[in-house]
């Protein structure tokens, strides 16, 4: 790609950022047509290179073709389609409510590009969780540096090789590498950093961003609790939980991490989960296409280590050579068990018994705010109680994981599970500068006299009267429209 | 000491008493009472701190605070209510909404230039959002801080909203604690330290910082009126305003006229000797006085230039033909010194602005709509006011905040509420309709994958009440018009309808 070294001694990362910034400053990302053209090229990329993407995912995570399609490709395609159709609406100036002083002025919020955005992707969904922010970055008119995770090395390689063949080479660059490369990148100055990954690294990213006063979006993780009310349809609940847990072999940031239920339903829950797993995979999770693998040895060892101190209700089979861990349900788990000290990110499902929803709420509130909270119950009152007495990034009742698929819902965490949000229009807003604009005229200077010195009590009382009189412009407009409608109706009747 | 107050605030928050809307409204009403009842005390404190005139205090701070409180009280129920979102095929039969929730304990670090507005406006939002708040006013505006510490516990809940006094070391102590949000107003250097401290706890931050806000005067506009407005904005609070027009950019041909108009306006506002005017302020302390005076080193002002160190008085000063690389142009002035830098045309001005850090505000004085639009398009800033200064701050429906070095996050009106809330995505499904879900479960096959694909790619539909109302009205209108059309056509076709005849239509 002919990168000329401007100054010797500049690292590869520095050069990449410089090139992206210079291309951004030419202003070519501003016209909407350019952004839509790039988004369409991204669409072509996904369409034409599906084979490469699926193969990479198969090698990295043992993801089946169907799983790759459902959880990595389709969601990006839908986002691209949404962004292309709605871009004009999102990027248009947004008028705001006026007051008496500004009645004759043009007042609006104008979305603008921020500049160069750094997107650090994770390894569990290396395509969707890296490309979804990229879609928003392109739509908002930014340049972007992508740093895919080196742990999902095949996907990372494919992105690095193929993306430049479709998108603008200077504006959207891929920098491959591990921790040292990421650290080099984080020394540079960006206009926004979008990080998906762990809480520990999230802190380092924010610290690095603070040095340049760069705003950040952190999509982190945590232990997402799942409460099953004893009076609900346990069979269906467990099927949905088992499905969500075993997508990508438990390596999902919004997977139900552990179950909370009353002792009376414990055995039923175990049975139903067992039944669902049999339904999904017949008797052979190991040979089923639809069951994934653990990403690498380190994660494998870590997950296996979490099982100590608990009773295995069923499962527990593993094959280190293949990175295979079978679906495992653990009981006799307490808050102090090893498996409850960190996010599992694997196919282990501990069940903790609590005596009712109040104890469950207390258990949840003693811990960090999770990325998502799951509640299974027929009782609406109970669900509302859980919403009122807990906090989490999101709350889903009677299902798991699907809130990610409605792009109108903002997706993000709170506290240690993250900050900022994205999906659909929210990504666009997050990666834009929403600039307040007030266009006045060089006329009607008389109105301003109450603010100029020399000050008098009379001027002040005028100012107070003006500012504190709330003209509800919206209501006025509604009334006018209603009057017009009424007169039209009268005319028709006449 | 700080830790104790923080713990108490946290425990008070966890008790849940800040959550009910009635409680929040009651606190907001109390705050409103405080502002109205104690106006004299507040004005006196400000006069001692910064020689603020008795009219400027309500004008610049108190009316604004009252306005925000009124708005919050009026709209709280609306702001705190669940917000429905668009649905797709997947979620069509579910309850899907965003629920705003309190974050927890918010740290509000105020500034000394508008010690009441910049501390209480965020506090209004914090209370409205249901949070507890630790308020740390600036030690530089000493009298105001002492007054705030004395007054706040008399009106608001003592545990939920403590005031912490102190300087740098007390602030650092506070920043070690784990807050749920930090709202900081001040300079960029300390802003970085605040964000670094926040990073250790993954605390989100709102930083209202500063910078040099450029002010471009087009040669073809009404220079007289433009200069009047600029003069007001620059010298209010003696230039110590984060959104004051920091410097002027104009073409050499109008520079002389600009200087003259400013001189005339200053005479009108403050008289021949601004030192004697009750409306002209002072610099906050000796250190800032010395800083501003040293910025002027080596330049001969065309207006003003007098100073009196014993009073921390600097006369309204204008400097012309200032070189772009002078010290005066390197840091935010934050004082009553107005440099004029000449540029050859609007393009030159745009380049000048873009070479520098993104400012908190950009001011453009121009009568040509196209040129205004172009300048807005080709630059960036936190906010823009065209043909006036600072006014975008006064409309609470506009989000107020910076970008880049001038800050992150925004506030005012509903935006403060949103900034200090957590927007929790809620999806309430039912345990029925399991058959719809079959497509997603393994074992996966072609047919299932196809159904999943259809559901995932379905468009977003707006099912909110407002859209429904409009849809119904539009349908009724449409049917009404259709019926009218049919009737007219029938009559025109000469249909001999007895009911019309009977009515005497054919008379």
Q: Which features characterize this protein?
A:
heterodimer, A: alpha/beta, six-stranded mixed beta sheet, 18 strands, 43% helix, B: 507 residues, five-stranded mixed beta sheet, 18 helices
Can you describe what's shown?
The complex is a heterodimer of chains A (494) and B (507). By secondary structure, chain A is of the alpha/beta class. Chain A has helices at residues 12-25, 32-48, 50-61, 65-91, 128-139, 153-162, 179-187, 199-210, 234-246, 263-281, 297-306, 357-365, 380-389, 425-430, 457-468, 473-493, and strands at residues 94-95, 106-113, 116-120, 143-147, 172-174, 192-196, 216-219, 225-228, 258-261, 311-314, 318-319, 324-325, 328-331, 348-353, 372-376, 394-397, 418-419, 432-439. The longest helix of chain A is centred in the N-terminal third of the chain and has 27 residues, at 65-91. Chain A is globular. Chain B is globular, with a radius of gyration of 29 Å. The model of chain B has no long low-confidence stretch (mean pLDDT 92). Chain B has 507 residues and is an alpha/beta fold. Strand 18 (432-439) of chain A pairs parallel with strand 14 (383-386) of chain B, so a sheet runs across the interface.
Largest sheet of chain A: 7 strands, mixed
- Helical amount of chain B: 40-55%
Strand-residue proportion of chain B: 5-15%
Q: How would the global form of chain B be characterised? A: globular
For the sheet with most strands of chain B, the description reads:
6 strands, parallel
Distance between the termini of chain A: 74 Å
Considering residues with a beta carbon less than 8 A from a beta carbon on another chain, report the largest interface and each chain's count: A-B, 116 and 114 residues
Q: Work out the oligomeric state of the chains in this entry.
A: heterodimer
Biggest β-sheet: strands ordered side by side in the sheet of chain A: 10-13-14-9-8-15-16
- Low-confidence parts of chain B lasting 5 or more residues at pLDDT below 50? none
Q: Would you identify the regions of chain A where 5 or more consecutive residues have pLDDT less than 50?
A: 1-5
**Helix content bin of chain A:** 40-55%
* Total count of helical runs of at least 4 residues of chain B: 18
Q: How confident is the prediction overall: mean pLDDT of chain A?
A: 92
Q: Quote the average pLDDT of chain B.
A: 92
């Amino acid at each position: 790609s002919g990168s000329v070294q401007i100054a010797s001694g500049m690292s590869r990362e520095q050069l990449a950022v410089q090139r992206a910034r210079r291309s951004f400053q030419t202003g070519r990302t501003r016209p909407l047509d350019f952004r839509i053209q790039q988004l369409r090229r991204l669409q072509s990329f996904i369409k034409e290179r599906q084979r490469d993407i699926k193969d990479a995912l198969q090698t990295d995570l043992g993801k089946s073709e169907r799983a790759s399609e459902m959880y990595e490709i389709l969601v990006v395609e839908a986002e691209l389609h949404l962004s292309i159709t709605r871009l004009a609406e999102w990027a248009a100036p947004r008028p705001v409510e006026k007051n008496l002083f500004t009645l004759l002025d043009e007042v609006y919020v104008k979305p603008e590009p921020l500049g160069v955005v750094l997107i650090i992707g994770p390894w569990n969904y290396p395509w969707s969780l890296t490309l979804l922010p990229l879609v928003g970055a392109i739509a908002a008119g930014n340049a972007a540096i992508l740093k895919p995770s080196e742990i999902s090395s095949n996907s990372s390689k494919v992105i690095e090789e193929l993306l430049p063949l479709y998108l603008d080479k200077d504006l959207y660059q891929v920098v491959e590498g591990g921790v040292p490369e990421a650290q080099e990148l984080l020394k540079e100055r960006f206009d926004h950093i979008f990080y998906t990954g762990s809480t520990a690294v999230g802190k380092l990213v924010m610290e690095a961003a603070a040095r340049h006063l760069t705003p950040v979006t952190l999509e982190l993780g945590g232990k997402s609790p799942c409460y099953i009310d004893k009076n609900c349809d346990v069979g269906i609940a467990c099927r949905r939980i088992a499905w969500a847990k075993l997508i990508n072999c438990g390596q999902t940031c919004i997977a139900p991490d552990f179950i909370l239920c009353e002792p009376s339903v414990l055995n039923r829950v175990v049975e139903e989960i067992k039944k669902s797993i049999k339904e999904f995979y017949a008797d052979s999770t190991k040979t089923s296409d639809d069951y994934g693998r653990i990403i690498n040895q380190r994660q494998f060892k870590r997950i296996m280590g979490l099982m100590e101190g608990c009773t295995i209700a069923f499962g527990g089979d593993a094959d280190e050579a293949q990175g295979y861990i079978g679906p495992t349900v653990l009981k006799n788990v307490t808050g102090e068990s090893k498996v409850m000290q960190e996010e599992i990110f694997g196919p282990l499902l501990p069940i903790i018994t609590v005596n009712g929803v109040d104890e469950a709420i207390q258990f949840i509130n003693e811990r960090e705010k999770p990325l998502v909270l799951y509640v299974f119950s027929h009782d609406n009152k109970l669900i509302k109680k859980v919403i009122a007495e807990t906090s989490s990034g999101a709350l889903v009742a009677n299902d798991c994981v699907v809130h990610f698929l409605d792009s109108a819902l903002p997706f993000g965490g709170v506290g240690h599970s993250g900050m900022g949000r994205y999906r659909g229009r929210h990504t666009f807003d997050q990666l834009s500068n929403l600039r307040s604009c007030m266009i006045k005229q060089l006329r009607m200077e008389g109105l301003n006299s109450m603010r100029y010195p020399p000050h008098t009590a009379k001027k002040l009382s005028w100012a107070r009267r003006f500012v504190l009189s709330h003209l509800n412009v919206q209501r006025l407009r509604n009334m006018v429209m209603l009057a017009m409608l009424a007169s039209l109706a009268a005319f028709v009747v006449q | 000491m700080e830790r104790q107050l923080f713990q108490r605030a946290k425990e008070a928050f966890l008790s849940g008493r800040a959550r009910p809307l009635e409680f929040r409204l009651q606190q907001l009403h109390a705050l409103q009472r405080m502002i109205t009842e104690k106006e004299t005390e507040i004005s006196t404190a400000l006069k001692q701190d910064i020689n603020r005139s008795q009219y400027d205090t309500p004008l610049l701070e108190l009316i604004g605070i009252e306005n925000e409180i009124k708005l919050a009280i009026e709209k709280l129920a609306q702001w705190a209510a669940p917000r429905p979102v668009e649905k797709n095929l997947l979620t069509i039969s579910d309850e899907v909404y965003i629920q705003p929730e309190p974050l927890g304990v918010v740290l509000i670090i105020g500034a000394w230039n508008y010690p009441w507005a910049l501390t209480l406006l965020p506090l209004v939002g914090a209370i409205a959002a249901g949070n507890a708040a630790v308020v740390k006013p600036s030690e530089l505006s000493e009298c105001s801080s002492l007054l705030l510490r004395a007054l706040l516990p008399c009106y608001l809940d003592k545990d939920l909203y403590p005031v912490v006094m102190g300087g740098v070391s007390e602030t650092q102590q506070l920043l070690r604690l784990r807050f749920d949000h930090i709202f900081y107003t001040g300079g960029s250097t300390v802003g970085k330290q605040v964000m670094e401290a926040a990073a250790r706890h993954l605390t989100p931050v709102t930083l209202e910082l500063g910078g040099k806000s450029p002010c471009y005067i087009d040669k073809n506009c009404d220079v007289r009126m433009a200069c009047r407005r600029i003069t007001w904005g620059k010298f209010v609070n003696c230039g110590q305003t984060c959104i004051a027009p920091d410097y002027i950019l104009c073409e050499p041909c109008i520079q002389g006229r600009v200087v003259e108009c400013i001189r005339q306006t200053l005479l009108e506002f403050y008289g021949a000797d601004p030192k004697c005017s009750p409306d002209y302020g002072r610099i906050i302390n000796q250190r800032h006085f010395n800083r501003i005076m040293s910025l002027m080193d080596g330049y001969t002002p065309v207006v003003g230039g007098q100073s009196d160190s014993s009073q921390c008085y600097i006369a309204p000063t204008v400097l012309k033909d200032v070189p772009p690389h002078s010290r005066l142009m390197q840091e935010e002035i934050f004082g009553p010194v107005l440099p004029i830098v000449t540029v050859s045309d609007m393009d030159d001005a745009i380049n000048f602005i873009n070479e520098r850090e993104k400012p908190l505000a950009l001011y453009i004085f121009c009568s040509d709509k196209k040129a205004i639009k172009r300048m807005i398009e080709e630059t960036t800033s936190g906010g823009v006011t065209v043909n006036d200064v600072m006014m975008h701050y006064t409309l609470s429906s506009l989000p107020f905040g910076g970008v880049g070095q001038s800050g992150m996050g925004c506030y005012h009106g509903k935006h403060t509420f949103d900034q200090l809330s957590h927007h929790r995505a809620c999806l309430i499904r039912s345990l029925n309709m399991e058959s719809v879900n079959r497509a997603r479960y393994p074992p996966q096959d072609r047919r299932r994958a196809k159904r999943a694909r259809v559901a995932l790619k379905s468009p977003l539909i707006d099912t909110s009440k407002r859209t429904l109302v409009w849809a119904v009205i539009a349908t009724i209108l449409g049917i009404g018009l259709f019926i009218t059309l049919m009737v007219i056509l029938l009559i025109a076709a000469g249909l001999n309808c007895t009911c019309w005849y009977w009515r005497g239509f054919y008379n």
